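Lab notebook, bench 4. We co-purified these components, and the gel suggests they stay together. Before we commit to crystallization screens, I want a quick structural picture of the whole thing.
Request: model the full complex, all chains together.
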Amino acid sequence: MTQQFPNAGESRLERGRRALAEIDGEAGHKVVAALADIAPDFATYVLEFPFGDIYSRQGLGLREREIATIAALAALGNAAPQLKVHIEAGLNVGLAREEIVEILIQMAVYAGFPAALNGLFAAKEVFAQRAEA
Amino acid sequence: MTQQFPNAGESRLERGRRALAEIDGEAGHKVVAALADIAPDFATYVLEFPFGDIYSRQGLGLREREIATIAALAALGNAAPQLKVHIEAGLNVGLAREEIVEILIQMAVYAGFPAALNGLFAAKEVFAQRAEA
Amino acid sequence: MTQQFPNAGESRLERGRRALAEIDGEAGHKVVAALADIAPDFATYVLEFPFGDIYSRQGLGLREREIATIAALAALGNAAPQLKVHIEAGLNVGLAREEIVEILIQMAVYAGFPAALNGLFAAKEVFAQRAEA
Amino acid sequence: MTQQFPNAGESRLERGRRALAEIDGEAGHKVVAALADIAPDFATYVLEFPFGDIYSRQGLGLREREIATIAALAALGNAAPQLKVHIEAGLNVGLAREEIVEILIQMAVYAGFPAALNGLFAAKEVFAQRAEA
Amino acid sequence: MTQQFPNAGESRLERGRRALAEIDGEAGHKVVAALADIAPDFATYVLEFPFGDIYSRQGLGLREREIATIAALAALGNAAPQLKVHIEAGLNVGLAREEIVEILIQMAVYAGFPAALNGLFAAKEVFAQRAEA
Amino acid sequence: MTQQFPNAGESRLERGRRALAEIDGEAGHKVVAALADIAPDFATYVLEFPFGDIYSRQGLGLREREIATIAALAALGNAAPQLKVHIEAGLNVGLAREEIVEILIQMAVYAGFPAALNGLFAAKEVFAQRAEA
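Here is the predicted assembly.
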C-alpha cells in the first residue's frame, strides 16, 4: 500500500496527472485530450478528483482499487469505453489477466450473465490489442 | 490464494454450504432459511452456483472477491440487504473497516455520490451492529 | 387473448379504469387515490396510457403481459412497491404462485442473484398478505 | 409445459447443451464458442446454470420464460447483444413477432420510451436478418 | 412558459406532431418514421403521450423540460441515441451549448464520471454535426 | 445566473460549505454530520466537489441545476434519500412545487411510470413535512 502518490508540494492537478499516467497510461491521456474542446474544465476535474483525490488516497492499494472499479463498471454495464480503460489499468497496476477474468465471471452472480459476458468480451478485446502492441 | 474450498469428494451443494458459512456467516444462513417456504430450489442454487462454483474458484482470493462484490452492489444501488451481507462478509474474510470505507468512497467516481453515501451509511450500520455483538 | 377491454363507445380513461380494476384491483385503486392531492393529472395518465392504451391492446394476453411486467420490475430492482402490485396483479389475471416464483428465480440469470432474492421476498410478502385476507 | 428437458441420465452440462441448442440455436452456440479462449469455464457455467438448471425447470413454459427474458433485457437496456439473442430465442420457442413487439411496447410503461424504442429497433434488425436467411 | 401547444380543436396526435416537430425537429421525425414497419402504433403513442400530453403541459417551460430530459438520459446511460436527439432538442428550444455542457458535467456527481464523459462525448458529436449542417 | 458562489479568497471547502448551506439547507448539513464518524474525508469531498466545484460554476443557474438533479435522481430510482434532499433543495433555490411535480411526471416518459410514481410520492412527503414546519 505504498504505491500511492504522496508529494506534499504538488497540487491536486499535478498529483492527478501523475496518477492518471501510472494507472490509465495512454488510454487515460486520450480521454483527457478528447475533452479539450468540449469541456476542458471537466478534464481538470477528472485529473483532480478521481486521480488527484481518490486514487491517491491511502488505505487501499491500486490493485484493490482497480478490482473495485472493474467490478463496478462491469456490473453497471452502461460504460463500455471506461470498462476497457480500467481493464487496461488493472493490467498496468499488476492484476493478472486471470484475476480480471475472475472478477468479470463473478459479476454474473451480482449483475447477471449478460453483464459478465459483455465484460468478458471487453477483456478479450483489450487483451488482444495488448498482444498486438 | 489458498483459502478456496477444494475437496474432490464433496458435491457443489456441500462445498457451497461450507463456503457460505465461512464467507457470509450467520447472515448468509438467514437468507437461505428465509427462502425455505417460498423457493427452496433457489436456496439450493444460491449455495451451488455463487458459493459452490464461483467463490470456490481459484485465481482470485476471497478478499479480492469481496472487494469486487461490495463495489458492484454499492454501484448498482438497488440491493441494500445484499450490500450489508457482503460488507459483513468482507470483514469475515479479512478486509479492514478502512478498506471497505475506501471501496465505498471510490464508488462516488463510478456510480455517483448518492451511491457512495448510501454504501457508507450501510457500512455504518453493519459496523455498529458488529460492535454491539 | 380475448380478455382485453374493447368497447368502441368508451373513452381511454373509462377503459383504463375498467382495466385497472380487473388487473391491479384494490392496490391499483390505492395508487390512483394517493396521487389525488399531489398530481391528479398523473393519476389520469396512469389510467389512460398503461391501462387504457397498453393493457387494453390485443396481440398479447393479460397473463403474458403480467409475466413481462413482473420480470421487468424485478430486473430493474428499483421499484419495490410496483413489483408487489404486479405480483398481486399476476395472481389476479391467472398466474399461479409457482409461475410467479419461476419468473423471479429466472431473473437471477439476467439481473443477478440479489434481484431474484429481493423479488422472491416481495412475493413471499404478497402471498402471505393474500393468505390472511 | 412439457417442452422442458428431462433426462435422468444426463449431466447439467449435457442438458444445458440440449436446451441452448433448442432455445438460442446458432446465436447461443456462437456465444459459447466466443468464450473458448478468454473464459472457457464461464462457457460451461452458461450451459449449466441458465440452461441446464433454469430453463430446464418445470413450472413455467419456454414461451413464458422468453417473455420474461425479453422484458427484463429490454427494461435493463444495457445488454443489447443478449436482447437480440433472446428475441431470436422467442421466435424459436413459438412467440409470434406480434407478441414480441407487444412485450417491447409495454416496456415503455415500466422502463421508459427509450428502452421500448431501442428494444423495437433490435427486434426490427432480428426480424430482417431472419427474413434474409 | 407560453411556448406550449394549446389548441382546443386538435387531437392529442395532432398536438403531439406539432410539438415533436418544434422540439426534436428532423431527428424526431426519423424516429417516428423508423417505427412505421415494426410498430406503427408505438409511433402514434410516441406522438400522443410524450409530445401530445407531457411536453404540451403547462407548468414547466420547454427549456426546463429539456434540461430534465438531458439529465435523466445522461444519468441512465443506456439510451445513447435518445440522448443525442435531446441534446439537439435542447438546442432547438433555446439551451446554449454551454448550458448543455454544464448539465452533463453535473451528472458526474449523481451518476458517476463515466456517465458524464459519455454524455459529453455525445454532445461533442451533436455539436459537430450541427456545425457541418 | 448570478446566484453562484464566487469569492476569490476562499478555499473549495469554504465555498462548498456556503453553497451547501444555501442549496440543501438543514438536510445537507445532516448528511455531512452523519459522515463524521464513518468517513470524515468523504464529508469533505461532498463539500468540495459537488458544492465547492460544480454547483459554484457559472454557465447554469441553481434553479436549472436542481431541475437536472431532481430529474436524474428520480430516473435512476435508487437514491431515495438524496432525491428528497434535492426536492427540498429545489424549493430552496426557487422552484415552485408545480414545477417539481412537472419534472417528476415527465420522468414517466424516460424512466417509466414506477420511477415517476416513486418520485411523486417522495415529493408528497417533502411538501407535507415542509407544511408542518
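Helices of chain A lie at 12-23, 25-34, 40-54, 62-76, 80-92, 97-111, 113-132. Worth comparing against the SEC data before the next meeting. The domain at 62-132 of chain A is CATH 1.20.1290.10 (AhpD-like).
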